[in-house]
Each structure stands twice: as C-alpha cells, then as structure tokens.
Amino acid sequence: MTPSEMSGIGSSGLPMLECLLADITVFEHLGSRIRPDDGTRASQGLVTVLAVATVVIVALWLLSRFTRLRENRHKHSPKLLLKELTRAHRLSGRSIRLMKQVAADAKLENPLRLFVDPKWLEAAQTSDRFRSRQQELASLRVKLFGSKEKK
Q1: Which end of the chain is more exposed for a tag (fewer CB within 10 A), N or C?
Q2: Are 64 and 109 within one domain?
Q3: What angle do CA 105, 85, 77 make, to 5 degrees?
Q4: Which of 75, 98, 130 is at the close of a domain?
Q5: Against a cut of 0.70, is the pTM above it?
Q6: Which regions span the lipid bilayer (predicted)?
C-alpha cells in the first residue's frame, strides 16, 4: 500500500478527508436542541466580562490594603528605626553590638534610648564591664552627640 493510499488520498480526490468533514457537520448541530440561540451567548459574554472585572478590582483592592498595612507596620518599628539611626550615624557593626551590650547592661528595653540620652554611655564608661572598651565608648559618644565633654 502506498503512502497516498494509506492517507486516503487517491486519484479520485480526497474521499477520506470528505468523510471527516462530513462527520464534523453532523456534530455541529448536536447542541442546538439543548442550548437555544436566543441571545444568551451575548449575556454570557457580559457576565464573563463583569466577573473578570470584579476579580481584577478585588485583587487590586487586596494588594493596596496589604501594601498599606505593611507600610504602617514599618512606621512604628523600633528595629527599623534603630537600623535607620545606625545607618544615619554611620555606625559600624562593632559599634552597634557595643550599643546593644550597653543597653542590655543598663537593662533598657530598647537600645534607641542611647541615641537620646548620653547618660547611658557615660554610665557604661564608668562600669567595670566595659573597662577594656573605653576608647570605643568615647568614640561612639562623639559620633552620637558630637562632643567629648560630658554635659
């Protein structure tokens, strides 16, 4: 059998293809009894468009709400403020660790208080625990408050 005979294409035209096309026309009208064509297709299209628009609007609303909540959470974050202040004062990682140790030694709930009141650094300078780090404490005090003298 030749390849053209296997595909159904012979010298007489396309009999196999004609059979396939004839079968398609048979199935074409199968659903016409189940689904009447009275304009419901247009209303289904409108419902689809409205559903997609609703999903997009809800998704945008949820995204804006999530973004707003995330921004508000960071507005009142002591950790974020500490990070910003240490960056603004150009403190090294070693200085930041020293600040946290001073805050822990003074039993401060938040190391941010060290940026406001120099008395915590002064107390650390007189403490035996930080005797070996006097130079670092003095340097930190100058970076934060701008003067070597105690006020």
Answers
A1: N
A2: no
A3: 80
A4: 75
A5: no
A6: 45-63
